[in-house]
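User: For a benchmark we're assembling, each entry needs the component sequences followed by a predicted structure for the full assembly. Here are entry 17's components. Please fill in the structure.
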Amino acid sequence: GAVVSQHPSRVICKSGTSVKIECRSLDFQATTMFWYRQFPKQSLMLMATSNEGSKATYEQGVEKDKFLINHASLTLSTLTVTSAHPEDSSFYICSAVDSNYGYTFGSGTRLTVV
Amino acid sequence: AQSVAQPEDQVNVAEGNPLTVKCTYSVSGNPYLFWYVQYPNRGLQFLLKYITGDNLVKGSYGFEAEFNKSQTSFHLKKPSALVSDSALYFCAVRPSEAGTALIFGKGTTLSVSS
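Assistant: Structure for entry 17:
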C-alpha cells in the first residue's frame, strides 16, 4: 500500500528559530497533500492544502507567513514553522491523497518549542 | 456544512466484550466515510471506509462499521475487544469534492481492560 514518510518524528527547538518538517510519498505521486495540527487528545485541525507547483491554500486563522508550505515535487511537501514560539508546540501530521490509495497519513512530528 | 460527530469522549470495555464507537455525520450528497486509529505520538492508521455498496464494511484488525443512511450513522464495531485495541479512534468524512481534505470528528478514546 501507499506509504507517506514524515520527518523528523520529534524536534525540540529554541524560541525564535525555524523548523522544517518533510512529508514524502514513497511509492506514489501526490499532487495534493494536507497539513494538520493536533493538540493533545484533540482532533486533527486542517491547516492547509498543498498542491504541487502552486501556492498552498490555508485555512482561516492559519498564518501563512508563520507556516510556510512548499510542494515543489509530486513526492515532497514541506512545512516550515518560522520564528517558532512555545504556543506552536504541537503534533503536526501530513496526509497525501492518491486516486488509487485514497488518504495516507504520515507518522507525525512532535514539535516542542522551548 | 459537512461535519462528523463522535458523541463519546471515552469508551470503556472489558477484554473479550464487544465494542462500539459511535459516529454520526452530516454531508451534502453521498457520504464517503472513514475510520482511523491513532496510537500515542503516531500518525493515523486506516481501518476502513464506506463509499458505496454493502452497508456493513469490514476492515483491518477485525473491525467493522455499519453505514445507516436513515440515522446518518457510521458506528465502528468489533465483536471481541483486545487490550491492544486501546487507542484514539477518529471518524472522518470526505467532502463532496474529490481530493479535498478529510473532516475529522473529535475522536474517541477506547480503553480495553484486561
